[in-house]
């Protein structure tokens, strides 16, 4: 969380009393006039520039310093209503300036209420992605730079504690829903009862399946009496959502509802029909012929993004390549968005994490290589170009099976899109190069296999079956186009309820790779069709399969384990760094089979053949092996306390005279037992011996107890004597040292009550040390309290105060 504090108030020079009063008076007058101007604001007048709006000086100067002068349509319509405290449902095309449409009212409404740090949280802005939250926060810092509010960014990726410490002092927060809920539930100091405004940017996304419950829980924490603003490029008026958010008589501000198109007029939109197996070739050819452009390429999953990025990087197209997806670490994601924003010519491969709200300057092309799940997603993706009156172009790649369905959806949403064809002479094939690369580089091949699986998975979970027809996709050919020797097997779980998993990107977990194949390394085998069986296998194929055993046989034989215990794939290092795995796809976790390695064993020994460095097991005291397959678990090895859980209780050993260790209870040999005589006689002897041992132990115990009582009595007497001496001395007027060497714990008299633990939080008394038990107060100590000093003058008072403080 980065606090943003404007400085104009701090910079004020000290003034004399009358100057201050005058300034305060002038401030009050300005404020009343501002309030009056807001009240008088006519909602029907169309406002063109920020200077026409009733805005405070700090906001006006923040806007002008950020070079915002004229209002966009959505700003002109929404800001006026929001200034008057109305709830708003705002919908406007991508890149039309929705961010300012809610930031300006936030600053103004808090300003007019003279919000201070003591008032706590005044406004909460929710964003579906971290990147968008960061971007909103940056705009807030810019336009709010002359305000004195504190603002924070809560998006996770930092320690909760660090955020917790500062959270209580924030007036405005920009956050992602998950992290916000975590704080609302766990941060005691965080109060929201005073909240004035709740804003949701990309509201339809926040309120869809992925966040529904989180948002409900957040709203439960917020006061009902508040102003709520919802913004998106594809807003819906779903009554249930509005009820959930307790919107009161919201103003529906949909500035482009009557427009002929849902997308900016400066945007040229095209689609190409390119069969799935040719998509990579088409993309490659496109990039090669647009080296002087800035392009965003959208793919359906992080694994797809990684594979295309890695393979194209190997092929060196002659333009910088970047990639962005949700499984990257936060720092990396931020670096990439900054780099891409600053670059002039580059290609960014991204998942839908970049589809909403991100404002990359001057993007020339948006390529949607994988078909978006619906028309709204298409609109958001394509909206990364042609922002704020600039020009831009979008190209959608469609498999022939997707063409009809998707075009219907787009037409329904008023998206004007035209077909274009690829020039045959420009089309280049990279299939052979990819095959060679996958052949030589097992890691790339592994990425390709994951990309294939995740693509098929993403198509399968799509809700719109008119557009996404998995059975019509030439999967075998698609796998070959990725450079793979065959299509990895995929098993679809029966009864798969796609409706339940509407959001493909969020809930792709209902599929499983085929674990029915009982061939030891057969899991990686391509899907065999009848055609395949008749095909002659070339030397090349055989080599590929041999390489396969090294790369994937290890993974899959561990991945798919009938007893469901462990898996140990051998992902490339990079792939693991991104935590970009197929785990969600599989019903078993990626862990090793039990008993792979003993504690302290060489790391290399603990890995299965051909495996990467990622997972290992350690066995502790013969217990079930502890699988080390993540950084968190690796840390665990360093904590003795945590490891106790995995350790046994330990075995007690006794040593004989020769120094040999024996278990405490060792089973005796039957022959030896018999040799010692009749069993009944032995039992009686044993009982008699044990009874005697118990009697002796009893006597010893009683003696110990008696000794302790004697000691206590002695101490009590000593204490009584000391007290008597003290009182006698008092009567004689002699001052004694405090009685602090007496063990009060052994006294039979009731002790002076110790302050309870709670007392720590009660305002401390003069000595400021409520925790420690104090020595008993004697009459002496009472009489020793000095008489109250005389305070005649201000000087006397100051002297006393400084003495107390000192
Ligand atoms: N009044 C304005 N004058 C000039 N530029 C503006 C104005 N308002 C916004 N912009 C610029 O327009 C661009 C798009 O703004 P913004 O990101 O707020 O759009 P958006 O509507 O939220 O887009 P999306 O729907 O994609 O989230 C930004 O670069 C912003 O700086």
UniProtKB/TrEMBL annotation:
For this protein, the record's InterPro entries field holds: DEAD/DEAH_box_helicase_dom, Helicase_ATP-bd, Helicase_C-like, P-loop_NTPase, RNA-helicase_DEAD-box_CS, RNA_helicase_DEAD_Q_motif, SPB4-like_CTE
* EC nos: 3.6.4.13
Keyword Hydrolase in the entry? The reply is: yes
Sorted keywords for this record are:
ATP-binding, Helicase, Hydrolase, Nucleotide-binding, Nucleus, Ribosome biogenesis, RNA-binding, rRNA processing
Where is this chain's protein located in or outside the cell? Nucleus, Nucleolus
Domain of life of the organism in this record? Eukaryota
What processes in GO biological process is this protein linked to?
rRNA processing
UniProt-annotated stretches for the region Disordered: 1-30, 495-540, 592-625, 666-791
Ranges of residues in domain Helicase ATP-binding: 79-253
Catalysed reactions listed for this entry: ATP + H2O = ADP + phosphate + H(+)
Start and end residues of each DEAD-box RNA helicase Q domain: 48-76
Listed GO cellular component terms? Answer: nucleolus
Q: Where is the Helicase C-terminal domain?
A: 279-438
One Pfam family from the UniProt entry?
A: DEAD
Q: Does the keyword RNA-binding apply?
A: yes
Residue ranges for motif Q motif? 48-76
GO terms for molecular function, please? ATP binding; hydrolase activity; RNA binding; RNA helicase activity
Query: Compositional bias (Basic and acidic residues) at which positions?
Result: 523-540, 613-625, 672-708, 751-773
Q: Where is the composition biased (Basic residues)?
A: 1-12, 709-719
Query: Which top EC class is given?
Result: hydrolase
Domain description from the entry? Answer: The Q motif is unique to and characteristic of the DEAD box family of RNA helicases and controls ATP binding and hydrolysis.
Q: State what this protein does.
A: RNA helicase.
The text of the family note is: Belongs to the DEAD box helicase family.
Q: What is this protein called?
A: ATP-dependent RNA helicase
Native source organism of the sequence: Penicillium alfredii
